[in-house]
UniProtKB/TrEMBL annotation, chains A, B:
Keywords from the named record: Hydrolase
Keyword Lipid metabolism: no
Originating species: Curtobacterium luteum
GO MF, any single term: hydrolase activity
Name this polypeptide is given: Glycosyl hydrolase
Low complexity bias: start-end ranges: 193-208
Length: 461, 461
């Protein structure tokens, strides 16, 4: 199981791309490496790299490549996210998608082609780096399919698949031959499927950079969000989840309640349920301890318990903490919680959560090889097999499926939460066998639940 | 009368601020100086300089100062526009005004304070440059008070005055002692008025950098636009107009029709009518020959005739042509006409309009010292003295006032269009005397007209 950190530059936050400093970057990455982390995730700002639809700035790509090299000098692998897009409540949308030029960024052919060109160019700029962990298409780009983002909101799930497929293909074109290894090994909508049913020996190992699609949790919890679980599970080389307990979870369970410290584990099991191929790696790419629902005094315990529960899931590629450095109070307008998510203070002092993270990273903790044998059935279809609207609300904080999963997890003999199996795939014995599922549990019929809002209310200013 | 050019960088358009090159800038400015121009107007990109509300990038300010120095080395003065904002159909709005952070940029106290801080810092960064012509608050910022810009559209005229006053004051703070001279000489809402009625000896001369508020022509032509003539005339040290005949004028009159080649002159006379102090300079800060309504074969004639008519107006500070260089066809999504507005091609060849401009600039042509003695009355108030909705529509292309003004201009003995006097100020004899108005003409009662749209339809993609 890999340990990493989402890298938030101490000086100038992500605006530092406008004044790129190799020495500032090196100081930050040296600190991150000192935690025992093995990778970072980095975030170029989309309109800075591609200010015009047909202008991809070579110097910006060089800066990204330089960061990857600096990280490598400290023994860190790097995941590069392309489309930011959205970061910590701020949107960075190119002017060619705004006002007079407002178009659906997921469906307009010119926009999709040029966005793909950017993803390809970015992947190509770092393709030869030995320490490239992977390319994510962008950070929670599915936010742009919803208000309050001013883009048109008429994207369908099918269009979302076409878009995600195009972006993953673009990233792979950029990576060239280095992308091939994983394509052959992990089936996805974007590549030739490998033999079904074969379990992958070790989720963390890999033969080339991963291409992934990162979404915020409305994909899992909000039936109205056009990008759903399939968009995470059907594209790229691993299924990505982002765990933020300000989504109602911590309000429901308390900062250190089982539902809160198991939220990352739970998302990983949800992800695994939607994967079409057993053994596809799942990546908890973002998880953090937001101060609006987790008091600073609980942050270290929250961190430790979260990671230990994550390690109880199978096929965990890794966990990537959000984030490295607190945001400077000299920068305005961040939601309060966003200032304090760092493992380090803004001036570089290690915080208690950072100490907890470092202890775990250095402990040699690994994720489980054998999956939990029990699986809870998720009703993703109606009796006639058609898709069921409401499946995602059931999974959301406060939803009946979420409650049933948590109850099972807390009563398990080994402390590990159960796997999840979709009703639509329940009859697939080969799949169940390949996933190591020997016991099927139904959500109790008398269990009720009401999903809480998952639209990140806490990140609204 | 000053001759200048709006500077559109040949390499990378305004995105070149992200990759600032002193040598590219020098090559472009040397070419502009070769036309005989005495000044340029330059356009930093707002979110590039101020990516966070409380982060004003020192290096970006240094780049702006460097451009001013390079221009000086070629004998060019420089006007620096602060809030871009809007340029050639593209909006550049900081992320702290978008999506979760959407606020009214003209009224939110935090936003106004931070915007003022930027204007002050920018003015301060160039305050000591001997060749600083002035600071404009921003390019056509009033566009943001209207759709399709996503900002809230509930700004009132009064709030617009408060905003403009705050921005002009901020620019003057940045300019420090160099701003004082003009403040003492030209009354405005933002400074102590000088003795009313005194004519200024020469509009083009100046004792310090000008502070101006630049608006697109909806301010003059669209009664629904919150920013109106008073916002241009009551703030700063000169009244700025932007003349674009794609606003319906050329459609009505033809590319070389009198209404088209007199459109710049007409706007200058409208501006003078709203000035509270006689002799306040008026600046035709943008005028160009858009190919969608002026064929390239007419561009030189359009340029020459426009400038000659402008010179027939009184108190003309100058004319600043849009623009220096064609936009590279390698950049996407510009409205077609925006690619071809340069006096030079993108690779630096002088175009016929450039030759015409250069001949005029070198000819020593001056604007009239004595104002036209005839003035046409503009009904800005109703019989009871209250403001009249419809005044601006009357002035718009196709409006009855515009038609009457043009008829008078074409029948004048000296070829100069008449002045304009507001009904609300008609009884002010001292003002009329100071303006040199000896003959009052009313719009014929039997004249009818229908205003055309002025919302820049041609710049919509």
């Amino acid at each position: 199981m890999r340990f990493g950190v989402n890298y938030t530059p101490a000086v100038g936050w992500f605006h530092s791309w406008l004044d790129f400093s190799a020495s500032d970057t090196a100081r930050d990455l040296e600190a991150i490496a000192s935690l025992g982390a093995d990778h970072v995730r980095i975030f170029p700002i989309w309109p800075v790299v591609q200010p015009n639809r047909t202008l991809i700035r070579a110097s910006a790509l060089r800066d990204v490549a330089t960061v990857v090299d600096i990280a490598g000098s400290f023994g860190l692998d790097v995941n590069v996210d392309a489309l930011q897009g959205h970061l910590s409540s701020f949107d960075f949308v190119p002017s060619w998608l705004d006002s007079w030029h407002r178009r659906n960024m997921f469906t307009d052919p010119d926009v999709v082609a040029s966005t793909a060109a950017y993803v390809e160019a970015l992947a190509g700029a770092v393709a030869d780096k030995p320490n490239l962990l992977g390319i994510s298409i962008g950070n929670e780009v599915n936010q742009f399919a919803h208000a309050p983002h001013p883009a048109p909101h008429d994207t369908t799930a099918e269009q979302g698949h076409a878009w995600a497929g195009a972006m993953v293909a673009a990233a792979r074109r950029g990576l060239g031959s280095r992308a091939v290894g994983l394509e052959a090994r992990h089936g996805s909508a974007d590549s030739v499927p490998s033999a079904a049913g074969s379990r992958r020996p070790a989720a963390g190992s890999r033969s080339g950079p991963l291409v992934t699609v990162a979404q915020y949790d409305a994909a899992w919890y909000d039936d109205a969000q056009p990008f759903g679980p399939e968009h995470a599970a059907d594209h790229g080389d691993a299924t990505v989840t982002h765990s933020w307990v300000f989504n109602g979870t911590a309000a429901l369970h308390g900062p250190l309640g089982a539902g809160s410290v198991r939220h990352g584990e739970y998302l990983l099991q949800l992800a695994a349920a939607w994967n079409r191929e057993p053994g596809r790696p799942n990546w908890l790419q973002e998880v953090g301890a937001p101060t609006n629902v987790v008091p600073p005094s609980d942050a270290a315990a929250f961190t430790e318990q979260t990671v230990r529960h994550v390690a109880g899931a199978q096929d965990v590629l890794g966990v990537t903490w959000w984030c490295s450095h607190d945001v400077s109070r000299s920068l305005a307008d961040f939601p309060e919680l966003e200032y304090d998510l760092g493992l380090f203070t803004n001036d570089g002092a290690l915080k208690p959560a950072g100490e907890a993270f470092a202890a775990l990273a250095r402990s040699g903790i690994t994720s489980a090889v054998e999956p939990p044998s029990t699986a809870l059935v998720l009703d993703d279809v109606l009796g006639d097999g058609s898709p069921r609207y409401g499946t995602r609300a059931d999974c959301a904080p406060g939803g009946r499926f979420a409650a049933a999963w948590l109850a099972l997890a807390e009563s398990s003999h080994d402390g590990r939460g159960p796997q999840v199996v979709l009703r639509s795939r329940l009859a697939d014995e080969a799949l169940r066998t390949a996933r190591g599922i020997t016991s099927i549990v139904e959500v109790p019929t008398d269990l009720d639940g009401t999903a809480l809002s998952v639209a990140h209310p806490a990140t609204m200013p």
